[in-house]
Amino acid sequence: MRTLVAGLVGLLCSALSANAQDTGLFKILKLEGHQVRWQAPHNGEPRVVTYRIVTEQEEFAGARNCRKITRFDGLMADSNVTPAALRSELAAAFAMWEAAASISFREAPEGTQADISIGAQVEAEGWAFADVFYDTASPLPIKPISKALVCLNPLRRWKVGFDGDLSRYDLRYTFVHEIGHAIGLDHPAGGGDQIMGYRYEERFRALQAGDIRGAIALYGKPRQATLNEPQSSPAGTQAQPSSARRFAKRWGTRGFTARSP
User: How many independent structural domains does the chain possess?
Assistant: First the structure.
């Protein structure tokens, strides 16, 4: 996890956001020296990123974490989570980022490629991860993301909601964190106090100030609504790019621990 070049950050965000990054509230993902983000359309509208929960085992050449992902059936059965609940938590996680910045998400139509594929790990490791592919040949100073993966460990136990038991991770919190990586955010230098922090927490369920500022730095403010930065509170068919034009880098929640000190 490398320090960003301040001059490049200045192209993306306001002085307020840059100051927020400097103080550790957020950090833009950097892969092999390149910042990355989903490319915005030229008409000024928010970028629409599609996603799909996989329905059969899929393998992604070049991925470092989610090399093989499959259906969530086993994970849901072992954690007593219904398909409706898992889909609801995933939709809520996407909605949080959509409310924070000028980026939109929708489920990919049947028979089309999805920008973000989501599923359970076939080779179980850690808790959850995200892989990000980007166009290495792009002349743009901020390389366009071409594909992202989110995968959860089916051998871990998952839950919906906070109950103080940090041996089971909340699905929404985890999905929000991994989607944050999938749109170009890293773990902030400050560690905790943000959903993008590297530790699993049960102190807040909403995006925190740094999470929001990081999303705005990448995609701009949401056009239709203004999202107030929350304070910490108690719990309550596009073709795959060729191998020469893409790169996958490990980034995920493997660094999560039980709680911040």
Answer: 1
